[in-house]
Amino acid sequence: MSSSRGRMVRHMLFWSLSHDLCLTGLTHLEPKEGSWNNQSLYSVPVDLDVRLRRLDLSNNFIRQLHTLALPYLEQLDLSSNQLDLISDGAFENLAQLEELNLSRNALNNNLGSNTKAFRSISRLRSLDISMNGLSDDAVELYLQNKPSLDQLKVTGNFLTRLSHNLFKESKGLRSITIDDNLISVIEKGTFEPLDHLEILNLAKNNLANICDFKLRQVKYLNLSKNSLEFFVTEQVNLLYRLEILDLSHNKLLYFPIVPKKNSLKYLYLQNNLVGALNSEAAMVSEANYLYSEIMRERIVKKNNLHSNWRLMPVTYIDLSYNHFTSFPTETLSLLSSLETLNFSYNCLQSIIWDVRNHPQSNYPRQLFFSALKHLDLQSNGVASISTIFLKALTGIQTLNLRYNSVQPCASMDDLESPRSAQQVNLNTSCVVFGLLKTLKHLSLQENNIKMLEPNSFQKTSLSSLNLAGNPHMTVQEGAFEGVQNTLESLTLSEINMTSSNLSLPCMPALTHLNISNNHLHLIPTSLSCSPLRDLDITNNHFKSLNHSLITALSVHLKQMYLSRNHFNCCESKWLTVLHDLKINLPDINNTLCFTSAGNMGMTDYLENPSVPCWLHTKAQELHFGQMIVIALFLTVLLTAMIMFIRKLCCTQGSFIV
Ligand SMILES: *[C@@H]1O[C@H](CO)[C@@H](O)[C@H](O)[C@H]1NC(C)=O
Ligand SMILES: *[C@@H]1O[C@H](CO)[C@@H](O)[C@H](O)[C@H]1NC(C)=O
Ligand SMILES: *[C@@H]1O[C@H](CO)[C@@H](O)[C@H](O)[C@H]1NC(C)=O
Ligand SMILES: *[C@@H]1O[C@H](CO)[C@@H](O)[C@H](O)[C@H]1NC(C)=O
Ligand SMILES: *[C@@H]1O[C@H](CO)[C@@H](O)[C@H](O)[C@H]1NC(C)=O
Ligand SMILES: *[C@@H]1O[C@H](CO)[C@@H](O)[C@H](O)[C@H]1NC(C)=O
Ligand SMILES: *[C@@H]1O[C@H](CO)[C@@H](O)[C@H](O)[C@H]1NC(C)=O
Ligand SMILES: *[C@@H]1O[C@H](CO)[C@@H](O)[C@H](O)[C@H]1NC(C)=O
Ligand SMILES: *[C@@H]1O[C@H](CO)[C@@H](O)[C@H](O)[C@H]1NC(C)=O
Ligand SMILES: *[C@@H]1O[C@H](CO)[C@@H](O)[C@H](O)[C@H]1NC(C)=O
Question: Cα(326) to centroid of ligand 4, in Å?
Fold first, then answer.
């Protein structure tokens, strides 16, 4: 039954092929695409254009694939169907097929006929057989006779053990993605013979360790989400091409021992157990001990970890979510190209300078993180940072200290002398930001800061400063002294400030200001100095905004958030200014204002401004009338007085003359 239907389909296809060729001729061929994505198809349509180069049949209910006669077809997407039977000759007439996507089907069935069909597509360059319930043997069968295969995806199958037979007929592979399987064993010789292999993704498997990493050709290696306890490479003088190594979400206790000569740029170590051993020294010697165990060296000859980290050209390391209680200063200072270090979500409480002394002297050595630009220390509980550590950050631009317990020190003018600097070093109860001359971006959000003293950031180059969420903080006059000309972005949200607590200097570079979530009722008039583009005043006690100030600001203002205040509808001339200038007010639809008749939406008010304030304006007019009366009265009085004084003067004058 099914075979006779197959014959019929084939017959029709051949008919349409010859028909088409007669009509158009080969010379008029153009690249053609056919898309039947998500059309509830139960079989391949019979009237396909023979000239098709791309055919998308994904997201249907196709269960069987019989001979396709599409001699120009280059790409076929049958992903997300229910394909479990591919007849022997199904691909025989697809001479040009290069890309085949069969992910999310049921290719674990009918292996005999399916894999036989597969053997005929030897030109294939890209194959996706993810999510097909495939075992080790099945994948090996599907990969037979694939000398041109460049890219392979086998995500989400049931591979457990990779053997040296797996890729022996697909040696040209450049990219292999076998993530989300159950692999716990990789036999020697599985990947080594693949000379072109550059990208290898083995994430989400069950690998327990990498004892001797040998793949010198690989540039990208993803081993995230396995159960790795260590990663070790034998220290040989061969060049590895490795550039990106992802070892995140494993159980590493130590830093990896990477190839001696490598090209590593990005090293992902987040979500491991590194640092759980007490000190840096203990960790380093344990790692070296492990290395000599694995390499069966009798004695631990040298510090292999440090000697190979010293040569690593890495620019980015993610160490977030590890177990560090102390900062591994010596090890990380070896990385002379390191630009970005993510040390967030560890358990540092203080950053002390725990570095071995100079052999000759008793002074601690000053090491440097000379290339480091971005340091993320958020969520560590840091309360103190030694000055010698700060001095090591000679090129720092971004420092994220969000969710710590840092107290900024006052001006460091008197700290310049070595004696007092040493005192601060001994008792680091506050952090001397003034030592970070190159610092541009600082977040001190939620540090429970008590006092922001004058000149706290003097000598830095701060352009953005986040002080949000320090509800007990007193901002002293002069706190921003020294950075008022460089600050472009300032966040003072959730500080529990009233308008009498907030006095800002003239800040001629400030473009972003966030003073949301306070108790403010006045915008500081000093802001007329600033070319503000973004302003957030949500959740305060504003009743109205200074009309002339808003008019001045509106020259630069692009966006303003203003909901959750206590605006008086009838004193909203300022809003008309913003509205008329088409300044973006993203939360205007949630902004209420009150009238004597109750609350209403500000947009509703704007649509018809006069009505609800009729009474209010009447009252104002009345008020105005009274004022005129008073003014008239005063004028009369004044005139009378002047005349009286003149008279007096004249009398006196004549008296003198
Ligand atoms: C397929 O189409 C149906 C409606 O025809 C739609 O509800 C569904 O989201 C579509 N699925 C995909 C994967 O595009
Ligand atoms: C195959 O199709 C799926 C969607 O069904 C897509 O996510 C996947 O990236 C495709 N594979 C390749 C290699 O393009
Ligand atoms: C490695 O794979 C994991 C899991 O699929 C993914 O989240 C991560 O982004 C990959 N890492 C890199 C560096 O591409
Ligand atoms: C550091 O890692 C944390 C946690 O994953 C992330 O939120 C943060 O954006 C990262 N920081 C940098 C500078 O990449
Ligand atoms: C440093 O300050 C702490 C309180 O923050 C105090 O207990 C300690 O005695 C001080 N140490 C020195 C050496 O002054
Ligand atoms: C905010 O300040 C008020 C007094 O102005 C005080 O009663 C309140 O406890 C403060 N809130 C916090 C979270 O510090
Ligand atoms: C803030 O100002 C209020 C008066 O508006 C005052 O009671 C309070 O002590 C001030 N808080 C600080 C931290 O200066
Ligand atoms: C202002 O700061 C608060 C608290 O940090 C934040 O939630 C809000 O998104 C900020 N506003 C803007 C416009 O970024
Ligand atoms: C309104 O702002 C202007 C500066 O634009 C200032 O001179 C004036 O004093 C402010 N008025 C009030 C009531 O704050
Ligand atoms: C406010 O609501 C109006 C009408 O519902 C809508 O046209 C406008 O885009 C909304 N504005 C914003 C900023 O969401």
Answer: 19
Q: Which atom of ligand 2 is the closest one to the Cα of 126?
A: 13
Task: Give the mean model confidence (pLDDT) for residues 368-373.
Answer: 96
Q: Give me the amino acid identity at 453.
A: E
Nearest-CA residue for atom 11 of ligand 9:
546
SS3 590: helix
Cα 80 to averaged position of ligand 3 atoms, centre (Å): 23
pLDDT band at 654 (very low <50, low <70, confident <90, very high): very low
Structure tokens, 267: 């090293």
The rounded distance, in Å, linking the Cα atoms of 14 and 68 is: 10
Annotate 369-383 with three-state secondary structure: CCCCCEEECCCCCCC
Segment 49-59, tens digit of pLDDT: 999 999 999 99
Strand segments, DSSP code E, in 8-143 are: 33-35, 54-56, 64-65, 75-77, 85-86, 99-101, 126-128
Which ligand 5 atom is nearest residue 427's CA?
1
Q: What is the pLDDT of residue 616?
A: 54
Q: Return the residue whose CA atom lies nearest to atom 8 of ligand 3.
A: 224
376 lines ligand 4 (CB under 6 A): yes
Nearest CA, atom 9, ligand 7: 501
Tokens standing for 1? 């039954």
The answer, yes or no, to whether any atom of ligand 7 lies below 6 A from the CB of 501, is yes
Q: Pseudo-torsion of CA 468, 469, 474, 479, nearest 10°? A: -20
Q: What is the pLDDT of residues 149-189, one digit of tens each?
A: 999 999 999 999 999 999 999 999 999 999 999 999 999 99
479 touches 450 (CB < 8 A): no
Classify burial at 126, counting beta carbons within 10 Å of its beta carbon; exposed 0-12, middle 13-18, buried 19 or more.
middle
* Contact assessment for residue 154 and residue 126, using Cβ atoms and an 8 Å cutoff: no
- Mean of pLDDT over the chain: 88
Percentage with pLDDT > 90 across the chain:
70
- Summarize pLDDT for 275-287 with one digit per residue, the tens: 987 788 888 888 8
> Ligand 10 pocket, 584 CB below 6 A?
no
Find, among 84, 96, 173, 88, the residue nearest to 127 by Cα.
Answer: 173
The alpha carbon torsion through 310, 316, 320, 324 (nearest 10 deg) reads 20
Nearest protein CA to atom 4 of ligand 4, as residue = 320
136: Cβ contacts below 8 Å, ≥ 6 apart? 158, 159, 160, 161, 162, 163, 166
Q: Which atom of ligand 2 is nearest to the CA of 80?
A: 5
Q: Give the pair of three-digit tokens for residue 399.
A: 């420092």
Instruction: Check: CB of residue 568 under 8 Å from CB of residue 594.
Output: yes
| Helix, strand, coil percentages, rounded to 5, for the chain | 25, 15, 60
SS3 letters across 88-151: CCCCCCCCCCCEEECCCCCCCCCHHHHHHHHHCCCCCCEEECCCCCCCHHHHHHHCCCCCCCCE
Whether the CB of 342 sits within 6 Å of ligand 4: yes
Nearest CA-CA partner of 445 in 410, 412, 487, 473: 473
Beta bridge partners of residue 34, listed in sequence order:
55
